[in-house]
Structure formats: structure tokens, C-alpha cells
Write a structure and sequence with these properties.
The protein has about 300 residues and is an alpha+beta fold. Among the domains are: about 90 residues, TATA-Binding Protein; about 110 residues, Hypothetical protein, domain 2 (Endonuclease III, domain 1, Orthogonal Bundle). Helix content is about 45%, strand content about 15%. The chain binds a DNA duplex (13 and 12 nucleotides) through α6, α9, α12 and α13.
Length: about 300
DNA sequence: TCCCAGGCCTCGG
DNA sequence: CCGAGGCATGGG
């Protein structure tokens, strides 16, 4: 064995659930070369994590026994807290705790999913475990093309986030709500962020920094609809952003961004139609996805890359 | 130049 | 409740 210099038993392994393929998920993670929150290299993904004041860079890969391996890079061994945090983070990120077999069963009888699901077998809804990051990504992505959204996110992260260095590269931690709450619209203008979006970001940062919006609060809702109402009451968060966040961060399987233009385009292309589906057509399609709207949406999005 | 992007808010009917 | 207009900018 050719061991590297990190000798502090700093690997956590997680058995993969059924209907999971690491490569398929890595393929989704690779969709933008402009992504700044992690780096793909060969068959692994590297990312900075922070737990309390402690930071780490981890490399997530798949070992030969169908386990996910989280290896801590760097010379200082992670604390027990950090190890536990990293495992929970990766479980959430890659959705390792969800049994999706009933989604796959449902897909077999669906005119759209019947063909799509086998193409991307083992793909999970990739999460954005941090609430502030998820809301920001939603707001940033409103109304602009995805390429520009990635650019805006990168500028925001590199201007106000924290770099964790490893082997000459910077692994970025997302800007904190506290830092963002202290910014002004003028601070964000040089990033080419619109004034309106800057207001939204700063406002939601303030809510989260003050503890007036938390994941616990949303998870304690009676259901997806009530959680959606909590979110859409916030300026800058409409139905699309709310459902996007509920899907990617809170992991409501029935979250459904029905207004999403990407979803509309995916359906149009798959059905070889001239026009995008009407709202009524979308509702009709989604009736069969009940309880799994988020997964259905994510798989349909996947067809676009 | 024009239109579309992983929308949302405001305002007038 | 519903539709139109404005927002800012990049990319095809």
C-alpha cells in the first residue's frame, strides 16, 4: 500500500444505499465547470467544511466495497465533532438516507420517467444542506441563465466567503449570513448583482443571522405547503424559490417548483412538442408523481445537461 | 438587435 | 384574483 502523508485515521466510510451510483451523482456534480463550492478531480469530489470554528477539506470517493469514503485532507486530524459533522453532511448532500425504491416503481408507469430514470439510474437529488446557501442559490438563479448564475455565485463566494487552502488550491466556505447581513447593496453591485437581488440576499441573511428563519422551523411545519408559506412570506422568495429550497435543502420529497422554466423545457423536449407545457398539463403529469415531485423534477432537469 | 434565462414584486384593473 | 411592466445582465 502506498499510503499518503495523512496518517491520522481520518477516513469515514458510509455504506451506499440501494439504487445509488456514485458515478452518476458525480456526473451531476460536474455539470458546471464554474462551480465554486467543490472541485471534481478524477472520481472524487473535494470540498471545504466548517463545524463551529473548525475547518477541514474532505475528499469524497467510492471505495471498492461500495462504500462512500470521506477522507480528511491536510495534516491536522479532525475532531470527533468534525468527523460526525462531515458524515452527516455527506449523507444529506448525496441523500444517502432516503429509500427511493417507491419512486423507481412509480416511474415504471410514467410516460416521461419510464425512459428517463434508467438513463440516470442511481442519481440522487443532490442537496444543498446549508439553508443560507440554498436560499442564496435560489435567489441568485432567479430569471437568469444558469451560466451567469454560477458566475454570480462565484463572485459572491470569492468576495465574502472564506478560503480554506490545501495544496495550493482554495476550497471555499459559503459567506456567512452574519457577514452578508452586514453588507449593503453597494457592496454587491460590483459583482453585477442586481439591486433587487442584493436586497433580497441581505434581507434573508438578516433573518437567518437573527435566528428568525431556521431549518428546524421549516421542518417543524405540518408539511410542504406550510413550509412554503413560511418561505414565500419573505421578500424575494416566491413559489419557485421556496419549492427549490424545500427540495434541495429541506428534502421535502413533494416539493415541486412547477414554474421552473428548465422543467418546462425538459418536458417539451422529451415529448417532442413545439410549445412548453401549460400549467394544467404540468399538473396532470405531476399527479402521478405524488409524493415524489422533487425526484421527478430533478431527473427531468438532469436530461438537460 | 431580439429573445430567453432554474422569478419576483408592484401596481392597475 | 389577474395580467402587465420593470428589473439587470449574459449568451445564443
Amino acid at each position: 500500500m502506498n499510503e499518503s502523508r495523512t496518517e491520522h485515521a481520518a477516513t469515514v466510510t458510509i455504506p451506499e444505499p440501494g439504487a445509488f451510483r456514485f458515478a452518476e451523482n458525480l456526473s451531476y456534480l460536474s455539470r458546471s465547470s464554474n462551480e465554486c463550492m467543490y472541485q471534481i478531480r478524477q472520481n472524487t469530489v473535494r470540498k471545504a467544511l466548517a463545524c463551529d470554528q473548525e475547518t477541514a477539506v474532505v475528499e469524497v470517493s467510492e471505495d471498492e466495497y461500495q462504500h462512500i469514503a470521506i477522507r480528511f485532507l491536510g495534516n491536522s486530524p479532525p475532531s470527533a465533532r468534525m468527523r460526525a459533522y462531515a458524515e452527516a453532511y455527506v449523507r444529506d448532500w448525496l441523500d444517502l438516507n432516503t429509500d427511493i425504491s417507491s419512486f423507481y416503481e412509480l416511474a415504471e408507469n410514467d410516460e416521461l420517467l419510464r425512459d428517463v430514470v434508467p438513463r440516470f439510474y442511481g442519481l440522487r437529488v443532490i442537496g444543498i444542506p446549508d439553508l443560507f446557501e440554498a436560499v442564496c442559490w435560489g435567489i441568485i438563479g432567479q430569471q437568469i441563465n444558469l451560466a451567469f448564475a454560477y458566475t454570480l455565485k462565484r463572485r459572491f463566494v470569492e468576495a465574502f466567503g472564506q478560503a480554506v487552502p490545501y495544496e495550493g488550491d482554495s476550497y471555499w466556505l459559503f459567506p456567512s449570513p452574519e457577514t452578508t447581513a452586514g453588507l449593503s447593496v453597494q457592496d454587491l453591485a460590483p459583482l453585477q448583482m442586481s439591486g433587487r437581488k442584493s436586497e433580497y440576499l441581505i434581507h434573508v441573511a438578516t433573518l437567518i443571522a437573527e435566528g428568525r428563519l431556521t431549518k428546524e422551523m421549516l421542518l417543524a411545519s405540518s408539511g410542504c405547503k406550510q413550509a412554503e408559506q413560511l418561505l414565500t412570506a419573505i421578500r424575494g422568495i416566491g413559489p419557485w424559490t421556496a419549492n427549490y429550497v424545500l427540495m434541495r435543502c429541506l428534502r421535502f420529497a413533494d416539493a415541486f417548483p412547477i414554474d421552473d422554466v428548465g422543467l418546462h423545457n425538459a418536458i417539451k423536449l422529451l415529448l417532442h412538442q413545439e410549445a412548453k407545457p401549460t400549467k394544467a398539463a404540468l399538473q396532470r403529469l405531476a399527479r402521478r408523481w405524488q409524493g415524489w415531485e422533487a425526484y421527478a423534477t430533478f431527473y427531468l432537469w438532469r436530461t438537460l445537461y
